[in-house]
Amino acid sequence: LRQGMSEVIFCEGKTKDQVLKIFERMIERGEVNIIGTRASREQYEYLREHLKDDVIYYDTGRIICAKRVEIIKNPKGHVAVVSAGTADLKVAEEAAIVLEILGNNVKRMYDVGVAGIHRLFAHLDEIQSANAVVAVAGMEGALASVVAGLVSKPVIAVPTSIGYGANFKGLSALLTMLNSCANGVCVVNIDNGFGAAVVAHMINSLANQNL
Amino acid sequence: LRQGMSEVIFCEGKTKDQVLKIFERMIERGEVNIIGTRASREQYEYLREHLKDDVIYYDTGRIICAKRVEIIKNPKGHVAVVSAGTADLKVAEEAAIVLEILGNNVKRMYDVGVAGIHRLFAHLDEIQSANAVVAVAGMEGALASVVAGLVSKPVIAVPTSIGYGANFKGLSALLTMLNSCANGVCVVNIDNGFGAAVVAHMINSLANQNL
Amino acid sequence: LRQGMSEVIFCEGKTKDQVLKIFERMIERGEVNIIGTRASREQYEYLREHLKDDVIYYDTGRIICAKRVEIIKNPKGHVAVVSAGTADLKVAEEAAIVLEILGNNVKRMYDVGVAGIHRLFAHLDEIQSANAVVAVAGMEGALASVVAGLVSKPVIAVPTSIGYGANFKGLSALLTMLNSCANGVCVVNIDNGFGAAVVAHMINSLANQNL
Amino acid sequence: LRQGMSEVIFCEGKTKDQVLKIFERMIERGEVNIIGTRASREQYEYLREHLKDDVIYYDTGRIICAKRVEIIKNPKGHVAVVSAGTADLKVAEEAAIVLEILGNNVKRMYDVGVAGIHRLFAHLDEIQSANAVVAVAGMEGALASVVAGLVSKPVIAVPTSIGYGANFKGLSALLTMLNSCANGVCVVNIDNGFGAAVVAHMINSLANQNL
Amino acid sequence: LRQGMSEVIFCEGKTKDQVLKIFERMIERGEVNIIGTRASREQYEYLREHLKDDVIYYDTGRIICAKRVEIIKNPKGHVAVVSAGTADLKVAEEAAIVLEILGNNVKRMYDVGVAGIHRLFAHLDEIQSANAVVAVAGMEGALASVVAGLVSKPVIAVPTSIGYGANFKGLSALLTMLNSCANGVCVVNIDNGFGAAVVAHMINSLANQNL
Amino acid sequence: LRQGMSEVIFCEGKTKDQVLKIFERMIERGEVNIIGTRASREQYEYLREHLKDDVIYYDTGRIICAKRVEIIKNPKGHVAVVSAGTADLKVAEEAAIVLEILGNNVKRMYDVGVAGIHRLFAHLDEIQSANAVVAVAGMEGALASVVAGLVSKPVIAVPTSIGYGANFKGLSALLTMLNSCANGVCVVNIDNGFGAAVVAHMINSLANQNL
Amino acid sequence: LRQGMSEVIFCEGKTKDQVLKIFERMIERGEVNIIGTRASREQYEYLREHLKDDVIYYDTGRIICAKRVEIIKNPKGHVAVVSAGTADLKVAEEAAIVLEILGNNVKRMYDVGVAGIHRLFAHLDEIQSANAVVAVAGMEGALASVVAGLVSKPVIAVPTSIGYGANFKGLSALLTMLNSCANGVCVVNIDNGFGAAVVAHMINSLANQNL
Amino acid sequence: LRQGMSEVIFCEGKTKDQVLKIFERMIERGEVNIIGTRASREQYEYLREHLKDDVIYYDTGRIICAKRVEIIKNPKGHVAVVSAGTADLKVAEEAAIVLEILGNNVKRMYDVGVAGIHRLFAHLDEIQSANAVVAVAGMEGALASVVAGLVSKPVIAVPTSIGYGANFKGLSALLTMLNSCANGVCVVNIDNGFGAAVVAHMINSLANQNL
Ligand SMILES: Nc1ncnc2c1ncn2[C@@H]1O[C@H](COP(=O)(O)O)[C@@H](O)[C@H]1O
Ligand SMILES: Nc1ncnc2c1ncn2[C@@H]1O[C@H](COP(=O)(O)O)[C@@H](O)[C@H]1O
Ligand SMILES: Nc1ncnc2c1ncn2[C@@H]1O[C@H](COP(=O)(O)O)[C@@H](O)[C@H]1O
Ligand SMILES: Nc1ncnc2c1ncn2[C@@H]1O[C@H](COP(=O)(O)O)[C@@H](O)[C@H]1O
Ligand SMILES: [Mg+2]
Ligand SMILES: [Mg+2]
Ligand SMILES: [Mg+2]
Ligand SMILES: [Mg+2]
Ligand SMILES: [Mg+2]
Ligand SMILES: [Mg+2]
Ligand SMILES: [Mg+2]
Ligand SMILES: [Mg+2]
Prior knowledge:
Eight copies of one chain form a homooctamer. By secondary structure, chain A is an alpha/beta fold. Chain A has eight helices and nine strands. In chain A, strands 6-5-7-8-9 form a five-stranded parallel β-sheet. The first copy, chain A, has a four-stranded mixed β-sheet with strand order 1-2-4-3, sandwiched between helices. In chain A, a hairpin with a 4-residue loop joins strand 3 and strand 4 (63-66). The mean pLDDT of chain A is 94. Chain A binds chain D through residues 1, 3, 12-14, 18, 159, 161, 169-171, 174, 189-192, and chain D through 86-87, 115-118, 164-167. Residues 148-149, 151-152, 182-184 of chain G line the site of one magnesium ion.
């Protein structure tokens, strides 16, 4: 009855002390590469002070990692993380960092939104050769459809809450992605870079399993 | 206090007789190129029987035109009407036919949805040389953004109600288009091919005015 | 610029003749296993009459297949299709049939909704050994989370429009699945069994690729 | 025309002084076990200073109780309060504390969300032997359905606003619970632990009445 | 792992034959008082023809009952079913009939909507003496709050889809009931008379258990 | 082309200086009883300092009045302002104060929510003898229907944003009031005590006109 | 505890026989001018056959009136009923007919929508001299604001469900009217011409009372 | 593949340093009239300090412009910017300033909301002679329809988030504008003065092209 990867700590809304307690408990259990998502710099600094062990903070992705151990679980191929605008960076980095910690090769292609589609085409090779693509976009979220039209591997679409007005905090991009007319798109919650990373990691692991 | 073009009859929800009465009144006033939109074949056949004058029916666009007179009001350049899928045809044709009756050159590019973006690129010249583009798309509605990224003229985006589930009868495409990250996009109501045609016609008229 | 699998025909809303035309064109191109989804029995019977070639109709899944050729593209392992209630059958079968035509082994587990969770546990082995799970559920859609908590492979969740009142035509199940607290869930549009099948097929293909 | 239990003070949005006034008036009337919900620590401290009488503060449940008198109104059996994640604690504790003050035995089972369903099964006996179950869950809110499938007593479901994105401040869990396919589920407002406690207390009182 | 009452058949959307099959299977298992909800007269007539056993049809409540056996499981006290307008009758009767088949005494008070509140007061005794109240109301759904203010037992509120315009198919009454400022209200899905009956039956059973 | 009463200043979102300017301009024009709504204490204090003239601040109603002159425009009868809970006070007072400044007799009946309906009945005479009733209520907003059922004069219903969860910032009360099954209810925007006061004032003026 | 006017029968959704029964009962009680709204021609014809008494049917307004007696309750002044488009006629006529039956003088001004504002100005006198205005409009519903800006009497706004796409069955016009920036607007439910008529009648009665 | 005007920097949500970097990069590229929208005074002051070049700040429109060069790209005619209330000023100025920087003549007509329609008529000439009209309005957003009814040139409607309650942050005005019954209206996102300016600039450029 286990989910196959260690628990990941969702830090938002937890006190510094609550976060510390959970990290300590997991360190005691001997776990490595312990991940905290949506973590503030304050939470990180509190951990760095109180944990005997090394802790790393990934700023843009807002991720804390304790007991960081470099492992390449999936040596064959990579996961592409593409994102539409600079404002989507946080979410894209959440996905990319989690993927790397879980042992995947990641290729980042940021700022390739559909309004300037030539930027996307400049990266066609790296996208088409990926085992899975994480496509992060806010506002109208059209990126996922365009990308899925260009590749034959699963595209995990992450709508972001970037935008204003009729964007309704990411609803616009979410609906766009759910209604994609391209084959091979599946969607996770608004801003859920972590969730997309887990799905992409599972897919990449399957692609690596028979080596 | 006049709007600058003759009244257009929205036939949906009107009885055959109500529609006939309005056409007769306008013919009496001496108007030509009288347009009825959202017209059924039944309404058309009733008119053909009862009007002494010639009436034309445009099937896909569901448009009736009485006293059809070929005029080219705007000889210079054209309006491009692009649409994403075959299901969007009705709305695209509503726009194209209205544009032609109002005296514009129209270039149609249908089935150029973003999931197969090479089809769109095959028409790049005709799109980029237009004075205005009407972009019709349902489902995720991403077409408007991609097109607007490729041209420097106004793009009038028409979301359609094509789709199911989280499409919510066109809401998805509507929000996508309102949130477009590309410059030069403006939006009309869901399925409102007629409305888009009027705006595009006004723009094309301005582009022709100083000849 | 190709998507890696032949086009699939969405038959809903198309006339019998339009559907026939598309099938004929694809047969001429020499394609096999040509799929039409959301097809009515009427559309099927029209095709059977007019096509020289054999056509098969899958009733519950509402799928037409022409030029059916049995291929096992992915011999290793299977995709599990689980569904919550008898009412979700249509969507689950759409997914299962498409998966089989594309060359995957499929294990069906229907009527395993969370209100009687022992029925789900009776199938634990078949679910946990799958390369990917398609989880189909309407009403509250809780099935996806429970299943994802039990397996370490990707779960593609399909909300259905089954239900009434505050179900809002599938919105309830859709939101449930997007908010899943279990790892490894991604979501497709309401009632989109076909879309889930394509994603699951892509994943299963990756899992079979290095054999 | 009385509701059968003394008024409870909803402290949120009231000034410290307004809260004090209401407590004083009720104490004067000779009431005991006077409850204030959604109370801040500041409001509590102000009361402790100004009231001659003892006041208790329950931190997690954000409840103030003045004139606390231990009574067991319902000696037979208990109410189970189950909750999905640590983030739902506040609401679960609001329910549990109110139930205890009203004179019920309460068994708490927290962190038994459906993504790790074995944790729920570990408490099966305590849940099945309860006279009523309060089920508190945010995000996808699937807990209520699973629990209701396991017991034959009423389940009062409390959606919480825990989550982000397509959670829409608890709407997701609310719809899930209203659409439960399991028998015996009824629902209260988002985050309304207090309301659930009152219904559960009324049910437990009926279960104790003929002793 | 059983829910404590036999399965109830939701007939809507099932073919006559499917419904017949399920009834036959349950009769074979020796069950009595087998209930089908949301049943059409056609489904009923088909069953009457094909089942060797007696079947009853409750018109307004749209309920089929096979193997009807009069039992009084809960002799002490009654459940009150109150409803606002004649249009809510169907849902109220669904609740009342299910309650009676399950063995409860039921007192019906229909057409006691809040716009003519004196009609409600005329029944005060029967409402206040009930072990539980099922309150059925569409449009603004205010009945549940007024009733809950008058009794000290649980009120199970059933919003109905009766209304038009800003009623949004029952959403209005649903929100009203979820926001009730009166103590002791819990809510089931729009039009879910059956669901309310099950909760009320469970409560009434607890109130009868120690006799 | 005039609206028949002097402009009222909506102070929210305006700087202290902007508000001052508008008051000064209106004073110069010789107006009296100049009203500012949604005014903060800060805005008031700034006006008191800088205006040569007297200014009054109504705290709960958040109203500034400059050049206050007591006039009774409508001597015959009164307007009743009823409200459900203490939390609705702000909005009720906005209505009451504006009504008084405009020259109406006002009778206030606060805290007469439907959960304790006897409190409402205690004021039956004052409500039934009013020329118009302003009914202010948040949460489920049932008050308007109950009141309208008791009187034969117009009831202007004001939904308030008081509540949480499925209240959706007043949407719940708004829908309730729009769906009122009682005759004679009309509705203004959420929290718009001012708007209700203007309508009630116009009605009361008509009731006084033939004296 | 009476509402001051006899009950009105909402015929939609009632069988011909149910409607007949209610009319018979009211005729027996000696009532006159008995009104049925949302009545179909079929219901009317059934009544004409079975009632000994005269019944009248108002086609566009879908109103049945039995025991029609011409009374002028309010001789002084009139109520103006203005509507935006021909499609809003049904609702406008529902209001106008009910107003006339209740004894008011009515002036109808139809097809005065804001897109051709000169048509509205042509009726300025009749609008400004009314005791109350009922403003009926679908689509964008702007009429109410423009009218309210021109008069100093109450404007009862009736949004209609006329429109398509982002009109969302009247939601668009409803929100427009609730947000009116003009003084003196109050709103009733979508398509609720009857409700507006009752409020306008009450106001006109007050304006006539002191004669 | 270029959009025909230089990139514009959306400053909201960017750090002072990020904004500075982008401005520096564009200055290096030799661009002039570099625009930053949604810019705070803080961002401006930081730029003024660190850039060697002159920078201008437009307060109300929240726009930064570096390397400001006066050019009149479109000498013939003007664009009219009309707005409803003082609260809509920010958005109207965003449109007006952007239009001026891009080289258009702009005529501003602010505070011409429909509740006082005579103020709008006072400017009829300037509106009717424009090549395009940008119509900015919050609350009920009726201005766009009234204006479009008076002119024969395109009206670009900008809903604003001004309002409260059922305004739902601009949704009300957005729906109004999308449903406009007047010809020639197209819509941009809520508060998107910039987007409207770009469309209006493109139209005005076309109107100037053949000189
Ligand atoms: N950024 C994230 N978004 C969504 N879910 C997450 C995220 N980070 C962690 N989780 C999930 O949340 C669970 C932990 O929640 P908690 O018990 O509140 O720490 C983990 O099991 C993860 O599956
Ligand atoms: N009217 C009803 N409303 C909601 N749920 C129902 C209703 N009638 C039956 N059910 C539930 O639906 C389940 C049967 O669904 P099905 O398997 O589709 O017949 C039963 O276990 C009942 O709990
Ligand atoms: N509390 C309020 N709610 C709604 N509208 C108001 C309110 N107070 C004033 N108004 C209206 O807002 C207009 C003034 O808006 P402004 O020009 O922004 O001061 C006045 O004409 C009033 O009709
Ligand atoms: N006020 C605005 N509203 C909407 N879009 C804008 C606005 N200002 C700039 N943009 C667009 O946003 C893009 C820049 O976004 P960014 O890369 O985040 O700076 C530009 O290409 C503009 O088209
Ligand atoms: Mg693809
Ligand atoms: Mg462009
Ligand atoms: Mg899993
Ligand atoms: Mg159960
Ligand atoms: Mg009670
Ligand atoms: Mg009344
Ligand atoms: Mg007025
Ligand atoms: Mg116009």
